[in-house]
Fold this protein.
Amino acid sequence: MKKTWAVLCAALCLALLCACGQKRVDPVPGGPRPEPEAPRLTSLVCSNGELTLRFHKGEDGAWLWTDNTAYPLDGSCVDELAACALALEDLAPVPDPAGPETYGLYDARKYVTLGYSDGTSVTWRFGTQSEDGAYYCSSDADLERVCLAPDTLLARMGQGIYTMAVLPDLPAPSVDQLREVSVSRDGYTDRLTTTDGRWLRSGSDVTVDPDVQQLLSSLCGLSLTRCVDFAPSAGAAALCGLEPPAAVVQVICAEAENSYTLTVGGLTEDGASCYVTVNEDTTIYLMDASALETVRTWKG
């Protein structure tokens, strides 16, 4: 037994010695080391002196509005802003600049800050405008390097967050798919139902009524044109004529996914658009006033 243990120990020691004597094999002998990953753009802050927009990327890499991450942000709009901001690096410096203070860069209220995954950031500030409308600008990395930037970025920044919303698609049923339509205005509700291809109002056949046909057609294919207020504060609906509303339309279709309720408010100042909300969503949108003319003037 002792002899057996001695043989086993000797074999184990020999194996360990052989292992220690082996050199680590380089998976790519003499090959170049991989380049470190370049810092990625992860945040963007833009200010035109009156409005400041803040964005950052979520865990999935999608852009989010920092002030309200639930906002349905169209990330392509932020990509466009970021592209304009990144292009500032390629601007040629102004020859023989007079100095940052001459161009209002020391106290500039217009700026854009690009934040990166390694924790670094670069801020570009925009001062006075040249005769052709371009902005004198410089970065905090080199304030003395003054450039002239086109007004593209500042113009985009001034459009505001609500031009960057992904608008929901409203159902677009055909008239044949409609089963019931109710229009409530001025305390009165006009209810239309269909049976065997005929449209009825309180039992009376109104199928060939041109006003009824106009109403039914107008409720098929409506679309939103712009977001006005996401998660509106108290009183916003009243200011938009939605409390009380000018009209409430309920559309019931054969397929439940095509049914919807539209609350119609007042007109915009130019009269071209109308304030609306959809179903239970409190978000206030705009819709072409001409598309809602029949609903807004419906008398039943």
